[in-house]
Design brief:
Glutaredoxin, alpha/beta, 5 strands, 179 residues, single chain
C-alpha cells in the first residue's frame, strides 16, 4: 500500500476550510453588512490636531446632548466628494456633524473645505490614520451616528448617497432622533 504524505492532504484541507468560511459568511443575517464593535459603546476619542482654518473638534462635541454625526473623510476620496452636498444639506437642517480628515495633507484638506464649503461644527485632523483605526474605519467615507451621550448607535460605510443612504442611513438617523 502506498504511503500518503501529510503534505498531500494540506491543499484539500485548506480548500475545505475556505468553503466552510464562505458558507458561514453567506448565511449570516446581513451578509453585505460590516458589523461594528463600537455600536452600543462610547465613542472613541477624536484627534487633538485640527485644521487651522476651521473650528477644532473636541471630545465634548461627541456627547453634546443631541444626536451627532462623526464623518471620516479625505480630500483625495471621490466618494467623499460625492457625499459632500448631502453633508452640507444635513448641516443646514441643523444636524451637528464632526468631520475627521484622515490620511491627508493639511493643505489639501483646507483647500477642499474652503472651496466646497464646510459642513462640520468641528474638524479633527488625523494625518496618520491612527484615530480612524480606533473607530474601526476601513476606508473613507464612513459616518457614525452618536446619541446625546456619545454612544455609537450606527456605522455607515460608504458615501451618503443613493438608495443605500435612503434605505439604511436615514431610518437609523430618524430612529436616533426619536422619529
Amino acid at each position: 500500500m502506498a504511503k500518503v504524505s501529510p503534505l498531500m492532504l494540506a491543499p484539500p484541507l485548506v480548500f475545505a476550510a475556505f468553503v466552510l468560511l464562505a458558507a458561514f459568511g453567506m448565511y449570516r443575517d446581513d451578509p453585505t453588512g460590516l458589523p461594528s464593535t463600537l455600536v452600543g459603546q462610547p465613542a472613541p476619542g477624536i484627534p487633538q490636531a485640527s485644521l487651522e482654518a476651521f473650528p477644532a473638534a473636541t471630545t465634548e462635541m461627541l456627547a453634546s446632548g443631541e444626536v451627532t454625526l462623526v464623518n471620516f473623510w479625505a480630500s483625495w476620496c471621490p466618494p467623499c466628494r460625492a457625499e459632500h452636498p448631502k453633508l452640507l444639506e444635513m448641516a443646514a437642517e441643523g444636524i451637528p456633524i464632526i468631520g475627521v480628515n484622515f490620511k491627508d495633507t493639511e493643505a489639501n484638506a483646507t483647500t477642499y473645505l474652503t472651496e466646497d464649503d464646510n459642513p462640520f461644527i468641528g474638524v479633527g485632523f488625523d494625518p496618520q490614520g491612527r484615530v480612524a483605526i480606533d473607530w474601526g474605519v476601513t476606508a473613507p467615507p464612513e459616518t457614525f451616528i452618536l446619541d446625546g451621550k456619545g454612544v455609537v448607535l450606527f456605522r455607515f460605510a460608504g458615501p451618503l448617497v443613493g438608495s443605500d443612504y435612503e434605505q439604511r442611513f436615514l431610518p437609523a438617523l430618524k430612529a436616533a432622533q426619536g422619529g
